[in-house]
Amino acid sequence: MSLLTDLTPTLLAAERKHMALPKADVLVEALPWLVRNQGKTVVIKFGGNAMVDQGLKAAFAQDILFLRQAGLKPVVVHGGGPQISRQLERVGLESEFTAGLRVTTDETMDVVRMVLAGQVQRELVGLLNEHGPHAVGITGEDARLMTAAKAYAQVDGRPVDIGRVGEVAGVDTGVVQDLLDNGRIPVISSIARSDDAKDAAEGGVFNVNADTAAASLAAALGAEMLLILTDVEGLYADWPHSEDVIPKLTAGELERLIPTLASGMIPKMRGCLNAVNGGVSTARVIDGRVRHSVLLEIFSDDGIGTMVVPDEQPFEGAAA
Ligand SMILES: Nc1ncnc2c1ncn2[C@@H]1O[C@H](COP(=O)(O)OP(=O)(O)O)[C@@H](O)[C@H]1O
Ligand SMILES: CC(=O)N[C@@H](CCC(=O)OP(=O)(O)O)C(=O)O
Known about the structure:
Blueprint: H1 3-16, H2 21-37, E1 41-46, H3 54-69, E2 73-78, H4 81-90, E3 97-98, E4 101-102, H5 106-129, E5 135-139, E6 146-155, E7 158-171, H6 174-181, E8 185-189, E9 191-194, H7 197-201, E10 205-207, H8 210-221, E11 225-230, E12 248-250, H9 251-257, H10 265-277, E13 282-287, H11 293-299, E14 306-309
Parallel strand pairs: 1-2, 1-11, 2-8, 5-8, 6-9, 11-13, 12-14
Antiparallel strand pairs: 3-4, 6-7, 9-10, 13-14
Ligand 2 binds near residues 49, 112, 190, 209 and 210.
């Protein structure tokens, strides 16, 4: 009998007394990632559809604070699509989406801004600040963080006018860097100042999809990771017919897939692609309905959703 099998029963008996041992295993599993990523920025997008109950929102806030305490720099970008739709309904306005983007009239824009910056962002800031003076809420308008140009939805390859919807034209990360340098957690609403000087002078702002905003910010900040929390397990290979999640795909594979995608997955996966092409090491879509999904995804060896990685770089020195 080997020494190991000889010792195992004794060891097992000793370990049984320590029911919390799996917790130590989890911490040890997280250690290499923590060491590698000290001081790095992680952009986390919390989708409106994933904010389904108070418990989930509180657990999300704990995860973000954990990341900060562990030496990372979390940046939160939040959505609020369903919350905007509910408010529009209350005031008698209709919600219409084209290619996953909200058709935004001037009237709609007022509601979008009020709900995102005045309600959803305030709630997240409040939850994070229950644990200390950490979170600061801003929109893309603050310190000209994000400027946008009018975007058109693509329908059957043709551009469709969807009103005051913007695509990100520029990001000035100054205000976010200032906050991060001071140990704060920026919580960002996806509203941008118009990049047209005349429009901006008249107070022109654009409604930017929150996935698009998060991806642009992640790339501009040189973030290590973009995490998008939504209300499905990840990218389904054959949605809506099956719930088989694609665990991992390269930027090239995703680019080929994007024209086949539908509704809310279009801005999400386009955002992942832009982030990775913009230098972010991984972009992931995970199920925000799972409590502590951020910690689960980051700190365990098995990811829980869909991970997008850059195309493999050709080996330097390889024959052309
Ligand atoms: N291939 C796909 N895999 C998973 N979900 C998909 C897919 N195509 C479309 N969807 C839809 O996209 C939705 C997520 O996008 P969205 O509703 O905008 O969420 P969020 O509020 O988190 O941004 C899913 O609930 C699902 O209905
Ligand atoms: C242009 C556009 O569609 N903007 C979105 C902004 C909020 C958002 O993206 O929220 P989710 O992440 O919860 O979907 C909207 O008006 O609903």
